[in-house]
Design brief:
By secondary structure, the chain is an alpha/beta fold. The chain is built from 12 helices and 9 strands. Strands 1, 2, 3, 4, 5, 6, 7, 8 and 9 form a 9-stranded mixed beta sheet that branches. Helix 8 packs across helix 11, helix 8 packs across helix 12 and helix 9 runs antiparallel to helix 10.
């Protein structure tokens, strides 16, 4: 699309500047938006503003200044606080503005949020994302969205500039979150399986670098093996996505299946592995640190340590 053919950009804000939210805010800034931001860590929002953009002291102040507010917080409790907590966004968003909910939450909770905001004349998009921090910063996320045509009509330019692919899965909230739940089942199981496989190979005496090279060029490879086991090889467990994220997300997977009496044996096992890692004090480390639950293996150390 030629620049002169583009519709006027909506005013946009991002709440939550973790690894994903910060990348998304940067991708929007790179696309030409004057991005407003808020984070519970004022120094993070201020640092973003120093690079270009505007920091706001609360989600409510930010909401009053934008047409599209993108929420990229950790869980449903934080979404609740952003919208309905002290100086929350729900009462400050103008009628016809859109809240884009990118967190991984229970699909029923997402549908409930859509209804509560509708009472205030505010539109809502269920829009969880996948792709990781690097793709977030590059504006190449996959977005699993559902919501009303009116919400899309306002938020479409923002969705387009944050992502490489926007899937429209239905006209009501919850469907996007259902697909994200399935994605997180696969992601969590794949990380757990990758860690188990790498741990077995190391225990058997295979050099970790050689094992990684062979598997990433063989049928047993997965995106998660290639991505997360690279962290293990580097001995770097800086959290891009933490162990405790998969404690939460796989818990949501299991909760969603329970009312259907639907068995999830692999998801259950992976959840227990992440729980064990968290209980061992690894909850804040990168999710690849789940490999540390396996005894008797010598893991690579980070260079310089």
């Amino acid at each position: 699309m030629n620049e002169q053919d583009r519709p006027a950009r909506p005013r946009v804000g991002v709440v939550g500047l973790g690894a994903m939210g910060l990348g998304m805010a940067r991708s929007l800034r790179n696309a030409g938006y004057d991005v407003g931001v808020h984070d519970l860590r004022p120094e993070v929002a201020t640092a973003f503003a120093c690079e270009g953009g505007t920091a706001f002291a609360s989600s409510g102040e930010l909401a009053a200044a934008v047409d599209v507010l993108v929420g990229v917080v950790v869980n449903a409790a934080q979404v609740e606080a952003v919208l309905f907590g002290a100086d929350g966004a729900a009462d400050r968003l103008r009628p016809g503005a859109v809240f884009v909910m990118c967190s991984t939450v229970d699909p029923g909770r997402s549908a409930e949020l859509e209804g509560r905001l509708a009472e205030k004349g505010v539109l809502y998009l269920d829009a969880p994302v996948s792709g990781g921090a690097a793709r977030a910063a590059a504006g190449e996320l996959t977005m699993m969205t559902s919501g009303s045509a009116a919400a899309y009509s306002v938020a479409d330019p923002v969705l387009e500039d944050m992502s490489s692919t926007v899937y429209r899965l239905g006209d009501r909230a919850g469907l996007g979150s259902k697909v994200k739940i399935v994605n997180q089942l696969l992601a969590g199981v794949h990380i757990a399986a990758a860690a188990e496989a790498m741990a077995l190979g190391i225990k058997a005496g295979v050099p970790a670098e050689a094992l990684y090279e062979v598997i990433t060029h063989s049928a047993g490879n997965s995106w998660m093996f290639e991505n997360r086991m690279a962290h293990v090889l580097a001995g770097d467990y800086t959290p891009l996505s933490a162990v405790d994220i998969f404690v939460k997300d796989l818990g949501l997977v299991l909760d969603s299946a329970r009312p259907e009496r639907f068995p999830l044996p692999l998801a259950s096992t992976a959840h227990q592995m992440f729980l064990q890692a968290s209980a061992s004090g690894l909850g804040a480390e990168d999710d690849s640190a789940v490999i540390k639950i396996f005894p008797g293996i010598d893991l690579p150390e980070q260079a310089g340590i």
